[in-house]
Design goal:
Length: 385
Amino acid sequence: MIIWDLVVVGAGPAGLSAAREAAAAGVRTLVLDRAVHPRYKTCGGGLIGTSLSVVAGRIEVPAHDRVDRVTFTRDGRRAFTRRHRTPLVTMVRREEFDDRLRAAAVSAGAEVRGGVAVRALDQDPDGVRVRLADGATVAARVVIGADGSAGVTARHVGVRYGQVDLGLERELPVSPAQAARWRGRLLLDWGPFPGSYGWVFPKGDRLTVGVIGARGEGDRTRAYLRDLLDRLGLAGVPAEHDSGHLTRCRVDDAPLRHGRVLVAGDAAGLLEPWTREGISYALRSGTLAGAAVAAGDLDRYPRDVHEHLVPSMRAGRRLLTVFARRPQLCHAFLATPAGWALFVRFCQGRLSFDRTLDRPPVRAALTLLDRLPARGGRPLPGSGR
């Protein structure tokens, strides 16, 4: 039986970034995924500057739009639009973006096998046996799990999640007139219940329209999506894709490694808790995992994640709490020059949430907001109530 140096389970941004990083360093790498590229993936598909910097030099980004204008609304009201002189977010279709990442991993020397479902992992001090749905077994010295928060590898490692949200999304083919209306502009709508928000992302002749809210608010989340589509005049447009998914964000002390198995991206619960942005975390954590395997130092991976990714996640959790309590103040702040400047720098990858919260005026404002009671009497997202 062939024993691979590394088997990666999952061929999304995290898994393919890990595979490319390891294979480029000479690690014999195999990637397994139940799907075959190119495949549709539920995702807004907006790349911020952090993501673009990770893939620079690896792939040519298949952009369908580059957004320089953002319209903000508060449950459909109090609209204002801001524009920047350079693009803020690059819009991709995940089937194309992920396929470019697959090609980059293959070019680096990795082998990618699609249509292969992993059922279980068994490990001992010498290696890991990856059991497949067809009864076959693949042997590896190390496994990186990137098969999502509900996947086999997250269960094997024992990842625990403290925040679970329901995202609903529709991919809509639109007329040339509608496409022109949205070209270069995205919509962010702060939703009708705590922690919820909606979006419209333009992608050429398609629009991605979605909403997200805390799990347990399924009826309100579905109603929110219907209302958003209706007020945008898109309710009658037949969806090319109509999908939903749960996003899961890890608790701080959740494991990232169990023996010879590491987890990255969604499988590790690595995403930004407020915006639920996950692509940049997938790309970065996958790269860190692949580098740790290439260095022969698996302990390095959790240290790197806690140094480079966890601080922004903690800050995002704090911001989500503030947003859930006082969305109207967040909306008003973004209308100010200071608020817009911070938003621009975040989109460009020049400012992280943890560095934002370190600024004395921001700390003072958050301290004041913490003293104000929440409105509406509803539990906050992730409170477990």
